[in-house]
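Moderator note: this is an archived Q&A kept for reference. The question asked for a predicted structure of one protein chain; the sequence and the answer are reproduced below.
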Amino acid sequence: MWKGRFQQEASDLLKSYGQSVTTDWRLFREDIRGSIAHARALAAAGLLTPGEFLQIESGLRGIEAEIAAGTFAFSEDLEDVHMNIEAELTRRIGPAGAKLHSARSRNDQVALDFRLHLRGNCGEIRAGIRRLQRALVELGSRHASAVLPGYTHLQRAQPVLFAHHLLAYVEMLDRDAGRIADCAGRMDAMPLGSGAIAGSTLVLDRESVARELGFSRVTTNSMDAVADRDFACELLAALAILGMHISRLSEDIILWASAEFGFLELSDRHTTGSSLMPQKKNPDIAELARGKTGRLYGNLIALLTTMKGLPLTYNRDMQEDKEGVFDSVDTVRDTLAIFAEMISAAHLREDRALAAASDPLLLATDLADRLVEGGVPFRKAHEIIGGLVALAAGRGVPLNQLDSADFLAASPVLTPSVVRANFELQSALTARKATGAPSPENVARELARWSRQLS
């Protein structure tokens, strides 16, 4: 493609080292779609005859079908998917194929293909997020009244409804879906027509090409258009945050599925065994997802590092933009799919969860609230209840099993009826009715809202 300037054949090592077709071949649909739109603009500008346009379109459709069928032979000598397609088109249809690259550079061509491809990926990822959200809502709905301990510092803190815990992840995932949508919105500017750096003296109707390709607008600075990889960095950042959320969910699943917790039963279809220990049932999906999050972080840092020192406009370093992005997209897409399936098949052991949530210590803060209702300043109430907790621990009895005299000695507010009512678990949950709190009424309303929103 540049043989007119060079007198020697490129080194075989250069060809091998510089090729990207083993990675970017997956852009073939976008490359062909963009090339057809570009050819139509060339024809509209009188740079192709109608017959030449039809030859190009037909030839590209044939190549697309062969690549999709797996029968097309890519050559590393031609570097990338773009040159492989163009060279084969020219071989098949002759001079008309050689006209296709008029008013176009590989710089704006690859910027177009990459944006088109990732914009489609954004839609797939958002659909995967929605499926996982639905699975979480459905699992919560199947166990709508189940209670388990909420934890801080991995210590039992306060009782919550199981569905409320799951809905926390639904909220996280919704922010992820919003970030992905924002990414897609910022990708929605067509760079084709920017050329290598400064456009072309062969002026085409960029707005018409943008409409054909489904873009809402065109880029307005040719240098930025070909140098920009913000959209890829932003998508990697959104995927890294999404991976972090799934990793946190993974940790809860791993803990809940352990014998020590025993809250969650995972399907045999979504667990593995041990090559040595016949009793094992391992939550490998959650462990793998937790591990793959490191790859998502690494791909983000790699691209940010690649881009941080590049002068305008295009530099060959930018060829390294795709492999990490493709890996992150594939990783997240696969993780969302298997998680939705695993969550759908999971089952909460409500008796185990309830037994753990029935620990009277989980309602110690509620007891302090009773003192506040009786006029005791909260810091003093905290101190009083802390003393009662220490007293119960010293005697080796549950907090609610202290003598009535012990409670009254701590504060006259803590009468037997107040203490007895305080340690009724369902009443304690019902009282948590502020917006966002896990009362049964609130949680039922949130489950219904998310069911409608995700249907």
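Archived answer notes: The beta strands are 147-152, 155-161, 189-190, 217-218, 264-265, 347-348.
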